[in-house]
Write a structure and sequence with these properties.
The chain is low in regular secondary structure. The protein has one domain: Pectate Lyase C-like, CATH 2.160.20. It is built from one helix and no strands. It is globular. The N and C termini lie far apart (33 Å).
């Protein structure tokens, strides 16, 4: 069960320029269309989360769990995904230009049609 609701995440993002959501369980939430720019999502559980059309430029997501997440048309330009798990994620039209993908698990990634790779 997630630690926060979509409404609580929106409030955190709106009140902080560099939102700290490190280590939080956000699994299974619909977070589509939100602006996470500059957020700290290190070790955050985003498994099976809908992040479609989210703006995540420059986000810190080292060691995050994005297994089975929907990342359709998400902007991850310059994001740090080092060591994250994207197993089974849908990255259709995702922008990963200049993203750090060192040691990222992309096994069984769906529709790997991304920009910047």
């Amino acid at each position: 069960m997630p630690d926060l609701t979509r409404k609580e995440v929106i409030k955190i993002l709106a009140t902080s320029q560099n939102a700290r959501l490190a280590g939080v369980d956000l699994s299974g939430l619909d977070l589509s269309g939100l602006n996470f720019s500059g957020a700290d999502l290190i070790r955050t559980d985003l498994s099976h989360t809908d992040l479609s059309n989210a703006y995540m430029r420059g986000v810190r997501m080292e060691d995050a769990n994005l297994e089975g997440a929907t990342l359709v048309n998400v902007n991850l330009k310059e994001a740090n995904l080092k060591g994250s798990c994207l197993r089974g994620a849908n990255l259709t039209r995702a922008n990963l230009t200049d993203a750090n993908l060192f040691q990222v698990n992309l096994e069984d990634t769906q529709r790997l049609q991304v920009k910047g790779m």
